[in-house]
Amino acid sequence: MKNIFKITTVIALLFFIINGCTKEDFDETPEYVTDWTANTSIADLKAKYSTVPAKIDTNIIIKGIVVSSDKEGNFYKELFIQDETGAISIRLDNGYLYTKYPVGRLVYINCQGLYIGTYNQVYQLGLGANIDRINSALIEDYVDISAGGTPVTPATLTIDKLADSLIGTFIRLENVEFSNFNTTYADNNVSYTTRNISDCSGNTVVMSTSSYADFAKDSLPQGNGTIDAVLSKFQGAYQLRINTTDDVNLTGSRCTK
Closest Cα to residue 220, out of 212, 209, 229? Predict the structure, then answer.
């Protein structure tokens, strides 16, 4: 009986030890700490390199909050970050970026050695004069994360107030609706599909959706309301790019029938 009691006691102790370790591992939120310090705003970086593409050969570190997400497939191997002065895209040769860089994450970018350029007026950071994606093995040399970030509150505006200074930032358009809602977010066999969005004053803008997005085949909502999106530009026209259909809230009465 004594041996059985000892064995039972040992098993019980092991159970509590294992449970204690497990609880500690899963209940504690990791606090990411970086020793990088931002010394330049995103707007100042763009102003310094107004002629692009250009190699950044000085010690420049920027920081910003992540506003894009590849979780549902509408963004691919790029990360948009935003500070109080503007936004920029970081081209990264890695998938599932949302697992380490979710929306709201505070990110620091060591720009020295990177190239800055534009694609359809969207500022980008990457490697080489072609602004290639940063190889996955090198990402941590240029990108670091820290605690303290919170999701950006989108700037609320109307279609006629869209401006180049807002490109790459997270915005909210109000009083808008899909011009033709009898379709899906994206078509088959094309990389991206654009759908027209209008307001009650007749202003228009397009939403661009990847055919690889999880919601590509979802039907467009029929009502009027708000859309939260990252503002982009292509061939001189503004475009909206959403992270998820949760950011499309069109439940009000349409202004057009």
Answer: 209
What is the distance between the alpha carbons of residues 143 and 133, in angstroms, rounded to a whole number? 13
Give 85-122 pLDDT, tens digit per residue: 999 999 999 999 999 999 999 999 999 999 999 999 99
Show the beta-strand stretches assigned E in the chain: 54-55, 61-66, 78-82, 87-93, 106-110, 115-119, 122-126, 134-135, 143-146, 155-157, 170-178, 192-199, 204-210, 224-234, 237-241, 248-252
Amino acid at 179: S
0.85 exceeded by pTM: yes
Domains and their CATH numbers in the chain? 42-146 (2.40.50), 155-252 (2.40.50.140)
Cα(245)–Cα(67) distance, integer angstroms: 15
Task: Tell me how far CA of residue 207 lies from CA of 2, 134, 145, in angstroms.
Answer: 74, 27, 30
